Amino acid sequence: xxxxxxxxxxxxxxxxxxxxxxxxxxxxxxxxxxxxxxxxxxxxxxxxxxxxxxxxxxxxxxxxxxxxxxxxxxxxxxx
Length: 79
Fold this sequence. Notes:
Layout: E1 2-7, E2 16-21, E3 39-42, H1 44-53, H2 55-62, H3 65-77
Antiparallel strand pairs: 1-2, 2-3
Helix pairs in contact: 1-2, 2-3
């Protein structure tokens, strides 16, 4: 889902971005898919990279570990 008003949050990339879930959709209840705590905006290149190296490694590499931890805590508090 591309939302043109959003840009990639990685450094100075600033490319048009799409939602990239921090946790797999399979672990999220469907009602939480649109909850902004569970995603960040990434361009296609960075979104692909996150899948190639894994979200944990990607978040550590680009400084999104806090967002990942927040998503994990939110997931367990919503169960």
